[in-house]
UniProtKB/TrEMBL annotation:
Residues 1-23 form the signal peptide. Keywords: Signal. It comes from the Eukaryota. This is F-box domain-containing protein. The keyword Signal applies.
Length: 293
């Protein structure tokens, strides 16, 4: 049987798989006009880019995208994203994902890339991200997990938090290889508690300069949160102490917790939803020195 003679529901399954696994999915669409009509929405619902050149080509496109209820945007850039056009390009890409009525259809965004401290355009991160309001956002580095690096440099952290602040749809937030060294304890929180009523889970791994007070306030001021997972997160540099549950509980004080909740209930909530994990160990320094003392 010829592929064009297959029942529509079978053809949809085959073509949806083909555009996801084919190294050049546009070739699948070019076979036949029927295939183009069926497969285009699947191609546009899962946008994946692995080079600046591909990002720029898509950003400069003018034809409307196929109508999709939800879209996923993945940007995977090995090494440093040294092109100063990057955040302007990303903003144009996210703008192309707007629905017909100007409402973003982007449901999930996943960055696997480094930011560079020398990049003078990091402030544009905020403008790029304010274009959308996804339910899931992940930014991690391209390095292996056993390589403790900084993908989100201090100069990028502030614009990142500013950009995600208006996301009322956000439910899941995951940040890896991030430095909060330019963010005072309150900065992380004044942006977050009042803007994310639907936020259910936060995952932070390989983070440095994160104050325990920040986590305490997040847990106590965001009632929808059911999980905060900290993996290899440090109060200062990686040579200092990790963030531990006891440190977070210590921040539960009358000035932090809602009087109606009380210190006891505030402490209980932190124990229920916050986990602190140590995945990577050092031979010397930091917690290991403290434990051996």
């Amino acid at each position: 049987m010829h592929l064009l003679e297959l029942p529509l529901d079978v053809a949809v399954i085959i073509l949806a798989t083909a555009v996801l696994v084919h190294p050049k999915p546009a070739n699948v669409l070019a076979v036949h006009s029927t295939w183009f009509r069926i497969a285009l929405p699947f191609l546009h619902s899962d946008l994946k880019f692995n080079s600046i050149e591909k990002l720029a080509l898509f950003a400069n496109g003018t034809s409307p995208l196929a109508r999709c209820k939800y879209r996923t945007v993945q940007i995977i850039l090995p090494g440093g994203a040294a092109d100063t056009r990057l955040w302007t390009i990303i903003q144009r890409i996210l703008q192309r994902c707007q629905g017909n009525e100007g409402e973003s259809t982007v449901n999930s965004v996943h960055f696997t890339m480094n930011s560079l401290a020398s990049d003078p355009t990091l402030h544009l991160i905020a403008d790029a991200l304010k274009t959308i309001s996804p339910s899931s956002f992940t930014w991690t580095g391209p390095d292996p997990e056993n390589n403790f690096s900084c993908a989100i440099v201090p100069a990028a952290t502030g614009p990142l938090l500013t950009g995600i602040a208006p996301w009322s749809n956000l439910q899941h937030l995951s940040l890896s290889s991030i430095s909060f060294s330019r963010c005072k304890g309150a900065t992380l929180l004044t942006l977050t508690p009042f803007s994310h009523p639907a936020l259910k889970s936060i995952h932070i791994s390989q983070g440095v300069f994160l104050a325990p007070r920040s986590i305490a306030l997040l847990a106590l001021q965001l009632p929808a949160l059911t999980r905060i997972q900290l993996v290899d997160v440090y109060q200062e540099s990686i040579w200092g102490p990790r963030v531990r549950i006891a440190d977070i509980e210590h921040e539960v004080a009358p000035g932090v917790v809602d009087p109606e909740l009380g210190v006891w209930e505030g402490t209980r909530r932190i124990r229920e939803i916050v986990t602190c994990e140590a995945k990577s160990e050092r031979l010397i320094g930091g917690d290991r020195d403290r434990e051996m003392a």
